[in-house]
Amino acid sequence: MYDIGIVGGGTAGMTAAIYGQRAGKRTVIIEGGNFGGQITSSPKVENYPGIASVSGSEFSMNLLDQAMKLGAETVVEKVTGIHAEDGILVIETTDKAYPCRSVILATGVTHRHLGAADEERLTGSGVSYCATCDGAFFRGRDVAVIGGGSTALQDAEFLSNYCRKVYLVHRRDEFRGEDSIVKRLAAKENVEFVLSAVVKEILGENVVEGLILTNKKTGEDFRLDVAGVFIAVGQIPRNESFADVVKLDENGFILAAEDCVTSAPGIFAAGDCRTKEVRQLTTAAADGAVAALAACKYISDQR
What amino acid positions are annotated as catalytic residues? Predict the structure, then answer.
């Protein structure tokens, strides 16, 4: 029997395990892929307080090592669901079942990819899905932001403070995001809108060197020379397996506020998988701490 079962081995999940273990609880982290989450693909992390610079992989492994040294158990299995049984929450995986007094869902999100040629190969070498994480590395250089929603607009505005030139590439004639941001961007000399265009190919041998775009109206291909490509075409939560257990919003994110409490007693949500405005390493770690302490209180209250 575990006190806290944690689904997901990213920053939120591992932080939850650290806080759970320090509170004297028996915790298990169940991860279906690689521990660390999306941050492991970032070559440098330079926006986490107290750590000037570290690779995403090292950051993640340090978290995992800390959790395991405190006694957290780890399991690499795909979680298929959760059910309640005689007052106990049971996490089901493809291999077995894990009875827990409380559960923290820290499943994270997957950034929606373009599917463009060489996108995967150049991820971390000029292709990024987080402008606030990686934008400073492109100071004084030309970059492109792909997308037309509010996130893409915000990314372009953020990058315009660092980069020499920001191309905002969108497949439609008009942006879907906030009109006020569009107006601010239109007034900036170093921002250029590239509309009715889609990415055909990302160029570069070892690092990004440019883009091949296709004009949707004429069908013609053209090139943009850029050093970085920031893809902001949406995020995909991985909460399908829990739709019958906790309430989700229309986009599939778990409905939970800053207290990380979900609609189901004893189940908490931490990190990018829950409804929230800001999704950063710092907020994932904060959620992990909040969720773990809430789980400890829930366990105490049940007794």
Answer: 130, 133-134
* pLDDT digit string, tens, across residues 80-105: 999 999 989 999 999 999 999 999 99
Q: Which range of residues forms the domain containing residue 157?
A: 127-231
Asked, for residue 119, whether it belongs to a domain, the answer is no
Based on the fold, state whether residues 198 and 297 are members of the same structural domain. no
Q: For the residues 59-69, what does the mean pLDDT come to?
A: 97
Domain count for the chain, please give it.
2
Residues 242 and 225 in one domain: no
Per-residue HEC secondary structure of the chain comes to CEEEEEECCCHHHHHHHHHHHHCCCCEEEEECCCCCHHHHHCCCECCECCECCECHHHHHHHHHHHHHHCCCEEEECCEEEEEEECCEEEEEECCCEEEEEEEEECCCEEECCCCCECCCCCECCCEECCHHHHHHHHCCCEEEEECCCHHHHHHHHHHCCCCCEEEEEECCCCCCCCHHHHHHHHCCCCEEEEECEEEEEEECCCCCCEEEEEECCCCCEEEECCCEEEECCCEEECCHHHCCCCCECCCCCECCCCCCECCCCCEEECHHHECCCCCCHHHHHHHHHHHHHHHHHHHHHHC
The residue among 204, 231, 258 that closes a domain is 231
Do 104 and 139 reside in the same domain of the chain?
no
* Lowest mean pLDDT segment, chosen from 124-133, 162-171, 282-291: 124-133
According to the model, what pLDDT value does residue 34 have? Answer: 86
- Say if 79 falls within a structural domain: yes
Is the same domain home to 23 and 62?
yes
Q: Are residues 224 and 261 in the same domain?
A: no
Q: What is the percent of the chain with per-residue pLDDT over 70, rounded to a whole number? A: 99
pTM of the model: 0.75
